[in-house]
Amino acid sequence: MTRRLRIAAGQGFWGDWLEAPYRQVTGGPVDYLMMDYLAEVTMSIMQKQKSRDPALGYAKDFIPLMQRILPILAQRKIKVTANAGGVNPRACAAAVAEAARGLGLQQKLKIGVVSGDDLLDRLDGLLARGHALKNLDTGRPLRDVRDRVRSANAYLGAWPIVEALRQGADIVITGRVTDTGLTLAPLIHAFGWQASDWDLMAAGTVAGHIIECGAQASGGNCLVDWARIPDLANVGYPIVEARADGSFEILKHPRTGGRINVAGVTEQLVYEMGNPSEYITPDCVADFTTIELRQAGKDRVRVSGVKGKPATDKLKVSIAYFYGYKAVGTLVYAWPDALAKAQAADRILRQRLKDLKLEFEAIHTEFVGVDATHGRLTREAVGSADVPEVQLRVGVRARDEAPVERFTREIAPLILNGPPSVTGFAGGRPKPEEIVAYWPALIDKQVVQPTVEVVEV
Residue 279 in contact with residue 309, Cβ under 8 Å? Predict the structure, then answer.
């Protein structure tokens, strides 16, 4: 049995640092590269791409990235778990296989594909059979917005990935699995953990949670003593070094920037945590109040003591639906009287929109440089202070596109017919954008049947 396993975080979201995966597989010994691409809104974006082209619907930048590191992965026997498949994991896997063949890696790699999370085409049948998919926040049934649903994906857990690994997959590409499952699965596979070992399931889940956001656990976006974090331009992404007993350490490669300490790991632990005693996943319920952290050396934090509880009989479903339209426009006003000018422009714009009898669900104004971050509190502190420049940022939201479109045509005229000293019209005239809203729901586990395929390149 493997004594220790190293799982390196390579991506924390779709759009993360492209150099990170390469640096992780070349900077020192690792057994797995874990790459997390998916957020709630990401699925709807990918679904829209797939509707335009059936060959799309996945993280396209995953392919050139894999093309760059595939020879290294094959040489060093590093396996990959990634949810880059989005709403089209088979197409993503086919693109990776093509890249591998182009590199002469035929018969040297096996690619696993995990699917079955996409429920979009099954929604009507599920609703007809009594699965209401009620909104977890409001209690409303999904039927209220069914005609506007753009994507619907159940959060699968670690076990389908484990099955792909058991079948010999070197690279496992999934759709919507939990972020934590991408790390938990290699631990289950390597150490032979059982599904009912709730403390071990929880330990692996906590490990996955710590590294799922990439460098956020190794100095990036860190609040504690942030100015003294060394060399963020060369930041090292976190690595889990785990043992069969469920204890593990968070570290990074030598000679990389950033910082791994108890404070930084704690910040990541409380990120998107919810109830600390019940962090619910498809694989277990982890009790974050039992976690013990200890500095075990420079840039090394030991994690132990994690306790878990049995998994529930539900899966979370992430549903995205069309809500309406929005637009955001900006103007920059210069000293003197920058704030007063921006405030006057806001009053003028709102009056003109009112005179046009346009119906908006919301109009929101920020004076960037004054109150955009801390709102009213900062404006009260600044008072009438003459700040050097202020960006007026106005956003509108409406169910129909027409009022939003008219708003986009009303902000630009302020450059010449409003207060003086507009110094920048950022990005030109704004354009209406569709609003995709989030609908969280639960569904019985037995309704969702994951599919695992493993193919040789």
Answer: no
Buried b / exposed e along 230-251 (16+ C-beta atoms within 10 A): eeeeebbbbbbbbbbebbbbbb
Phi, psi of 181 (to 5 degrees): -65, -25
CA–CA gap between residue 248 and residue 227 (Å, rounded): 28
Give, to the nearest 10 degrees, the angle between helix 181-191 and helix 159-166: 50
- Whether residue 81 contacts residue 34, with contact meaning beta carbons closer than 8 Å, is answered with yes
Tell me how far apart the alpha carbons of residues 56 and 63 are, in angstroms, rounded to a whole number.
12
3-state SS of 166-230 is HCCCCEEEECCECCCHHHHHHHHHHHCCCCCCHHHHHHHHHHHHHHCCHHHHCCCCCCCCHHHCC
pLDDT tens for 390-427 read: 999 999 999 999 999 999 999 999 999 999 999 877 67
129: helix, coil or strand? Answer: coil
How many other CB atoms sit within 10 Å of the CB of residue 147? 8
> Which residues are within 8 A (CB) of 107 and not within 5 positions of it... i.e. 6 or more apart?
456, 457
CB-CB neighbours of 423 under 10 Å: 12
| 223 class by beta-carbon count within 10 Å (0-12 exposed, 13-18 middle, 19+ buried) | exposed
Q: Report pLDDT digits (tens) over 120-145.
A: 999 999 999 999 999 999 999 999 99
pLDDT at 100: 97
3-state class (DSSP) for residue 384: coil
34: tokens are: 């874990």
